[in-house]
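Exercise 7. Given the components listed, write out the predicted structure of the assembled complex. Treat all entries as one system.
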Amino acid sequence: MSNVVIEVKDLVKYFPIKGGIFQKTIANVKAVDGVSFHMNKGETFGLVGESGCGKTTVGRCVLRLVEPTKGKIIFKGTDITNMKDKELRRLRPKMQIIFQDPYSSLNPRLTIKDIIGEAMVYHGIVSSRDATKRVKELLQLVGLSEEHINRYPHEFSGGQRQRICIARALSTEPDLIVCDEAVSALDVSIQSQILKLLEELQQRLGVTYLFISHALNVVKYISHRIGVMYLGKIVEIAQSEELYLNPLHPYTKALISAVPVPNPKLRRQKIILVGDVPSPINPPQGCRFVTRCPYSMKICGEIEPQLREVGTEHWVACHLYLNQ
Ligand code: SF4
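Answer.
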């Protein structure tokens, strides 16, 4: 049996811009423009890039929270790209999401018991009679006390709320959890606690994470493999350690050069990118990074580089590596 939980093939998501008296589509925001990757069971695949690069849209398309414009999403061997709502509802428990903001993602009027128990009862995973017992087990699993069960979200700190969000995501026994900037709103010390918790839960339950973040150091800590996104495209994919030690794409190199090094004796030369990220409405011809790349050549503005494997499980989309 295949180990692949999710396969994304040539995913495209355009958001139309309407204008004129007839509200016709006058342009498209090309948020995601031909993204492909896969995730194995029990793996964390990190998706990193500046805000606006399309990584959150990829996460939402994978869960079918937004409809893809083109491409395919295959979940455990089943093509879910055009699956009807009724069928999709059956699969929903197996695909969950943890959002960035643990404050706004919990309903302030519900108790923790209802917040965590609601989905598993709705999907028939446990009966309403057994829900309390299961919620208590989940609270313990995420490092909270079962005494918290009748409290409300406002009685918890940010880190505790994110633990509640994790318990809620786990309540339906998912195969895949999309963690969308799941630790970005937390203090650094709390971030590391939540990352450790996610890791432990993965080892115990074998769940797969799509971990989306703009912070490369966070993504590197938790991910087995990382995809780097720029302006709607994945420009590099590699094992986490390999990407960090041997970045190939000029954009990845610039991202890594900006990560602080914990050793004061070691200094990394920071690569400062010039110019702004171009508009996703009208991205550059050829390579999308051409307007900011310190190594750009004539071919870069003419032909779009494709992702090619240039080392073991190391893929890059850049004309500098054409002959490897
Ligand atoms: Fe730079 Fe050209 Fe490589 Fe794009 S293809 S990253 S412009 S060298």
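Discussion: Residues 188-205 form the longest helix (18 residues). The chain is about 25% helix and 25% strand.
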